[in-house]
Amino acid sequence: MRCRSLSAGVSADGAELRSAPFPASIAYQALNYAADGRPLAVTMATAKPLPELKILLHPTLLDTSLGARIVDLDRLVDKHTGETPDHFREVATLRVTYEHALYQLAWAQRLLLATSPASGLRAIASKLHGQHLKVYFLIHF
User: Fold this and answer.
1) 27 exposed, middle or buried (CB, 10 Å; 0-12, 13-18, 19+)?
2) What is the pLDDT of residues 92-111, one digit of tens each?
3) How far is CA 123 from CA 1, 26, 65, in A?
4) What tens digit of pLDDT does each residue of 24-61 get?
5) Distance between CA atoms of 136 and 66, rounded to whole angstroms?
6) Which residues of 33-43 are buried (b: 16+ CB within 10 A; e: fewer)?
7) CA separation, residue 137 to residues 7, 49, 140 (Å)
8) Given this model, what pLDDT does residue 69 score?
9) pLDDT value at 72 more than 90
10) 55 vs 40, 43, 48, 68, 74, CA distance in Å?
11) Alpha-carbon gap, residue 72 to 41, rounded angstroms
12) What residue spans of the chain are helical by DSSP H?
């Protein structure tokens, strides 16, 4: 018997949150992608001496419709953000780098606050300690 779709859910202290069903094939690809640990789905690399770029796709996405859509999207982005007079790609890359640095700074600040003796986060964590959190998947045949 083959699984058609899955639902994910979380419950704690009687409260329950459940997702809508999603195709089992998507769940399978997502779990394989996440288990692999590579942070990129697709990237373009130079293949000297050839002038064009080589598109490298994550192995889990090879020969799949999702992989084909990701490659098409990567080509579209590259086409419209490549060498432009306003240096769009370079500016966008710098913005992402700055946002990431800001996130890391905020995370470090929050960690410092959470570990201080007067932290409200510590009190919340102690209340949650020992409570049961149940995560589950429903399989639809």
Assistant:
1) middle
2) 888 888 888 888 888 887 77
3) 48, 39, 47
4) 888 888 888 888 888 788 888 887 888 887 888 998 88
5) 25
6) beeeeeeebbe
7) 6, 49, 10
8) 92
9) yes
10) 12, 6, 13, 11, 9
11) 12
12) 24-36, 65-81, 88-115, 120-128
Q: Supply the pLDDT for residue 128.
A: 53
The label of the residue with tokens 């064009």 reads: 52
Alpha carbon 130 to chain centroid, angstroms: 29
Tokens of 107: 């995370």
Neighbours of 61 (CB within 10 A): 19
Quick check: 60 and 38 in contact, CB under 8 A?
A: no
- Start-to-end CA distance of the chain, whole Å, equals 7
Place of tokens 């003796």: 117
**3-7, 19-23, 115-119: which is most confident:** 19-23
Residue count of the chain? 141
User: pLDDT digit string (tens) for 111-125?
Assistant: 776 666 655 555 555
Residue 130 exposure: Cα atoms within 13 Å on the Cβ side: 3
Q: How many angstroms separate the CA atoms of 81 and 62, rounded?
A: 25
